[in-house]
Design a protein that fits this description.
3 helices; 2 domains; Threonyl-tRNA Synthetase, Chain A, domain 2; single chain; alpha+beta
Length: about 180
């Protein structure tokens, strides 16, 4: 015998199949939305963390920039102090030179034959003006100066006759290069 099922079982299966597909699509959509929300939250968290790091780094940069400015100021102060110390050392090294030079000059000048009227020092040059009895005395004085410890070279700038108390004397000017240090 043949049985005929008049109940719409195929339609029921189709309805169940459609329900299952809708459930799968809806579930997939919900999972997709949840994944998007999770991704958005993790991106926002990462962005906030990076912004916080940037803020901390900016604060650190401000502190380091201030310290760098302080360091540059200290370096400038150190350079200035070193220059001042160099000047002081130079002055200290040469402070006794004028005394030594005048002492040496006093020993080199022939007492009865010559006298000095003016000594002018400018840098490493010494200009000597004086009066002597004759050219020979001036030449001897120049030789003595060349062999002294204070002068490296001597040159005669000028000489001229001058009368002092009725005696003919020789007025001279010498230019010398000093040995300093």
């Amino acid at each position: 015998m043949i049985r005929i099922n008049l109940l719409p079982y195929r339609e029921k299966e189709k309805k169940e199949n459609v329900k299952r597909q809708i459930t799968i699509v809806a579930g997939s959509f919900i999972i997709f939305l949840l994944a998007l929300v999770y991704f958005q939250i993790s991106l926002t968290t990462s962005i906030n963390a990076l912004e916080q790091k940037i803020k901390e780094k900016d604060d650190r940069l401000v502190v380091l920039t201030k310290k760098l400015g302080d360091i540059e100021r200290f370096k400038r102060d150190i350079r200035e102090l070193e220059q001042k110390l160099a000047v002081i050392k130079g002055l200290e090294a040469n402070r006794l030179f004028p005394v030594h030079m005048l002492d040496e000059m006093a020993l080199l000048v022939p007492i009865k034959d010559m006298w000095l009227e003016k000594l002018t020092e400018s840098g490493a040059e010494l200009r000597i003006e004086g009066v002597a009895r004759n050219n020979i005395i001036v030449a001897r004085f120049m030789k003595s100066l060349e062999f002294s410890s204070i002068v490296s070279s001597v040159s005669l700038v000028s000489t001229k006759q001058r009368e002092v108390l009725g005696f003919p004397l020789l007025q001279f000017t010498l230019s010398c290069t000093l040995k300093k240090g």
